[in-house]
Design goal:
Strand order of the largest sheet: 1-4-7-10-14-18
Strand content: over 45%
Shape: globular
Helix content: under 10%
Structural class: mainly beta
Radius of gyration: 13 Å
Distance between the termini: 28 Å
Number of helices: 0
Oligomer: single chain
Order of helices and strands: EEEEEEEEEEEEEEEEEEE
Number of strands: 19
Length: 143
């Protein structure tokens, strides 16, 4: 469990940079916050493969309450839950700047943001929804 962390910059719980790879098979990332990405920041061509993690109750006032996938990064979600996170933009996750998000399974639910409660997809981000569920997220616009 990674919990109750705060950083003044990126990734309250975990940050991955410079072509790193993270494989997550279980555990919880909860109650973290940062300037960007409350739970996790995946950046600079890094890859996150998530098989069974729970990313819950993370908060930022800016982008990516649960996750921020940024700058040619890749996120493959095979299972797990992204839930009850909040951010101004992308409560569950924000995918930005030539990054990719592929969802094979798992759930993105009960996240909040003024824009993109569950997902915020901008600036040449590619999203493939092959399986899984995205539901019950709240935003002033977008899902």
């Amino acid at each position: 469990t990674i919990s109750n962390s705060y950083v003044s910059n990126d990734g309250g719980g975990i940050s991955a940079y410079e072509s790193s790879t993270i494989n997550m098979y279980g555990g919880t990332i909860t109650n973290n916050s940062g300037t960007y990405a409350g739970g996790m920041m995946i950046n600079d061509s890094s890859t996150l493969n998530m098989y069974g993690e729970n990313i819950t109750d993370n908060y930022v006032s800016s982008f990516g309450g649960g996750l921020y996938i940024y700058n040619r990064a890749h996120f493959n979600m095979y299972g797990g839950v992204i839930s009850s996170n909040s951010a101004n933009t992308g409560g569950g996750l924000r995918c930005y700047n030539n990054s990719t998000f592929t969802m094979y399974g798992g759930e993105i639910t009960n996240n909040t943001g003024s824009n993109g409660g569950g997902l915020d997809i901008v600036h040449y981000c590619t999203v493939k929804l092959i399986g899984g569920k995205i539901y019950n997220n709240t935003a002033s616009r977008g899902e």
